[in-house]
Design goal:
Layout (H helix, E strand, L loop, with lengths): L1 E9 L3 H19 L4 E4 L7 E8 L6 H12 L10 E5 L7
Antiparallel strand pairs: 1-3, 1-4, 2-3
Helix pairs in contact: 1-2
Length: about 100
């Protein structure tokens, strides 16, 4: 399953948040063999950016590891509001 996590970031906090998210994603990649991505919307209405973390092909237990990593990285004070997680799965091809 693929996880998509989006949240809002105040423009003034983006430079502080970026290295924390990158370090967290690298640790998750090393520990769980995932290939994380980090994206953001091109616009910043009212000086607030929307960021998206993408974790393709996660395995059982990854969601709990991600939650633990977010807490350990201290991301919450730099995020404007909650983190929203969406889970998607591949649709099998018809043979």
């Amino acid at each position: 399953m693929d996880l998509y996590v989006y949240y809002r970031v105040r423009g003034g906090d983006a430079d502080l948040l970026l290295p924390r998210v990158r370090a967290m994603q690298q640790a998750l990649a090393d520990a769980h063999g995932v290939a994380p991505q980090l994206k953001r919307r091109p616009d910043s209405p009212d000086g607030v950016q929307t960021w998206m973390e993408v974790y393709p092909a996660t395995t059982a237990g990854f969601t709990a590891a991600l939650a633990q990593s977010v807490s350990a990285a201290g991301l919450d004070p730099l995020i404007a509001g909650p983190r929203h997680t969406e889970v998607f799965m591949d649709i099998p091809s018809c043979a």
